[in-house]
From TrEMBL:
The gene is phoR. It catalyses: ATP + protein L-histidine = ADP + protein N-phospho-L-histidine. Member of the two-component regulatory system PhoR/PhoB involved in the phosphate regulon genes expression. PhoR may function as a membrane-associated protein kinase that phosphorylates PhoB in response to environmental signals. Keywords: ATP-binding, Cell membrane, Kinase, Membrane, Nucleotide-binding, Phosphate transport, Phosphoprotein, Transferase, Transmembrane, Transmembrane helix, Transport, Two-component regulatory system. It comes from the Bacteria. The lineage of its organism: Bacteria, Pseudomonadati, Pseudomonadota, Gammaproteobacteria, Lysobacterales. It is found in: Cell membrane. It is an enzyme of class 2 (transferase). This is Phosphate regulon sensor protein PhoR.
Amino acid sequence: QPDGRLDVSLQPFGWRQRLLLAHDISPLTRLEQIRRDFVANVSHELRTPLTVIHGYLELLDPEDVPALAPVLGEMRAQSKRMGQIVEDLLTLSRLETQEHVVDERVPMAGLLATLRKEAEALSQGRHRITLEATAGLDLLGSPKDLHSALSNLVSNAVRYTPTGGSITIRWQRSPEGATYAVSDTGYGIPANHLARLTERFYRVSSSRSRETGGTGLGLSIVKHVLNLHQARLSVESTPGRGSTFACHFGPERLLAPEN
Ligand code: ADP
């Protein structure tokens, strides 16, 4: 087949022999392609009508239609939420089909200061937010995608930590390169959920995620962005005590800052 795919591996087989295994994965690849195209098309088609609905809801003045006032706020919030889900699905579709990123310098001092400000804006004084950053360490990659991945971890930490808790953002060298980590003293995650966190729409508690404005796609986006940068995500969590989400970057992704 012209677009056929084979999964080929060489296995040890007896003394000084190897077995060549070829597995035809074309049907699976095609199904996956159909799923991706479908999600991308649906999301794209929903974008315009949602923008129109959202625009009209913003125009409505609750004082003109007093009977509508109690529901207008809820309608606006829900249409904004739908818009966010559609945008996240479109981002995921793009990341899934993208094979590599266009490398640019990502100045970490500026990015970390922005992430801290975002955390403070979202927290509105409900948490203690600390930044511990190693100076002299920039990243190489897509500034926009890295910002969205690193900021997702910050917003999750704020959303899943009750008032009075602490959040620490760290950027430091590590044996394998450098690590960006966000620790919180929040709800934590039971061990049996950890392996599935980066699946689309996977949530430990749907109601808590919805209440705090989550789309259920944040960690999927993080995983895809990190894959494109040959980086990996690790999670350590203790229910009732808190979590640490860390992104591990290799030496090929690190740069000394420009003067
Ligand atoms: P959501 O929009 O639901 O937050 P994510 O993909 O960002 O979607 O996260 C998936 C799930 O992982 C969340 O619904 C939540 O249950 C759990 N989670 C993510 N970050 C944290 C955290 N810092 N503390 C506790 N639970 C978390």
